User: Which sequence fits this backbone?
């Protein structure tokens, strides 16, 4: 993300304002958890995160869901319980935003939840309990869930953690891009009009 800030003409920082904060966090986590051999593959993705700053409330729960969907089937059981809770909480936010029943889960999330039935059963029970306060999903739950997902993949018993992390980042970028506002068309220049009275040029001798 430091190079992204440089390319965007901002001060050198791994928290550039030119990228949505959660997406920037995903990129930092993926970079940190990718091996030295696989890290060079991430460099071409840097320009694609510049300018991605959508403010739609769907962005945080959707990007979080994408990251968890990649991780949930392969991470350790302990992480599965954590991520299943975060996924269900995010899905409730999406359902509320879309005017759907709060227990309605989008198909991609439902598929990965069904792949870990024990964790899902526990997570549904946990999220059904009355809570004194609702945690700040965007500022606390989502960043922690994303980090848990990325770290879990890097430590999972899989043969291709770098490939999985690369695909996770690509999907997170695509999801963020999908919520960018449509560009405002530029106003067409007004056609030049000829003056009704021709200009008279007088020369004085």
Assistant:
């Amino acid at each position: 993300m430091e190079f992204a800030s440089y390319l965007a003409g901002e001060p050198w920082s791994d928290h550039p304002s030119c990228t949505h904060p959660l997406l920037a966090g995903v990129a930092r986590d993926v970079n940190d958890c990718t091996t030295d051999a696989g890290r060079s593959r991430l460099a071409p993705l840097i320009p694609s995160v510049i300018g991605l700053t959508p403010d739609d409330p769907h962005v945080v729960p959707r990007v979080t869901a994408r990251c968890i969907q990649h991780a949930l089937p392969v991470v350790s059981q302990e992480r599965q319980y954590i991520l299943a809770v975060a996924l269900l909480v995010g899905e409730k936010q999406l359902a509320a935003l879309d005017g759907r029943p709060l227990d309605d889960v989008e198909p991609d999330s439902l598929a990965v939840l069904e792949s870990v039935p024990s964790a899902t059963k526990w997570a549904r029970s946990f999220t059904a309990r009355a809570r004194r306060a609702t945690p700040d999903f965007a500022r606390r739950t989502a960043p922690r869930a994303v980090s848990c997902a990325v770290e879990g993949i890097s430590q999972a018993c899989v043969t291709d953690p770098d490939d999985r992390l690369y695909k996770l980042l690509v999907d997170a970028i695509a999801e963020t891009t999908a919520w960018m506002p449509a560009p405002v068309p530029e106003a067409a220049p007004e056609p030049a009009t000829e003056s009704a009275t021709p200009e008279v040029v007088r020369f004085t001798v």
